[in-house]
Amino acid sequence: MNSFDHRVVDDFIRTLEVADTGLATQSNAFDKLSAVLTDAQRLGIYDFNPTDGVKPPQYTPGRATIPTVEQLRNIRQIGDDRLRLICDLMSGCGMRNSEAVAVNIDNIVADNVYRITEQVNQATKDYDRLKHRKSGEYREVPLPPRIRQSIEQYAAEHGSIDGYLLRDPRDSSRPFQPYLLQNQWQRLKRANRAAIPDGMVLYSLRHFFASRCLQLRIPITDVADWMGHKSLDMTFRIYRHLMPGSIKSAAESLDFALVA
Fold it and tell me: What pLDDT does 143 receive?
């Protein structure tokens, strides 16, 4: 730990850049390193934070591809029961795919509230804390009646293990792995190009949730919280163009005031 200073962190970032590492991966790596070093400073290992003065990688997400209601309906129809459930959780509750595969019926804490407590870690292949959260932390999201019905129906038809609905089909003692979901998505996309058009990815189902919330004029602060974004700035960068008529409404309101 004594070897770390701002030059080491700078070199780390440059190494990622030279290796043509994606900006999203660079940003995530820096965030994790920064969290470790911040904890080290809190524990007294450092008198200063080695990331101070270091310019972090700037990740600017591209414009989100959002399925239409008809496309969402088509995707549900071509998938099996597992994919339909995951589709409902991502599009209806805003879950990440790694969170959706960790769905637990015991996390329905109210008629219209689902508590997201964990995800399946792709590295360890086991249940783990949520992204951008400490162990034991959670976030609560709206649970539309239709999505609750989908969860309960899947549990009634397929059962559950310790409340978990999705398990590895080859070993029911293990969590269902996100890569299995991704593999199924790719197979369906190759076989059903009309239902899953080019440019649409599994993550687009989560974008559907955000877009619907904003179209319903739900405050973007609430949307950011439900999506589990690290900062409100991230939500703005991805979804600001979906906020209905903000510039148009402002122009009309200002014009009315001027006329009055």
Answer: 95
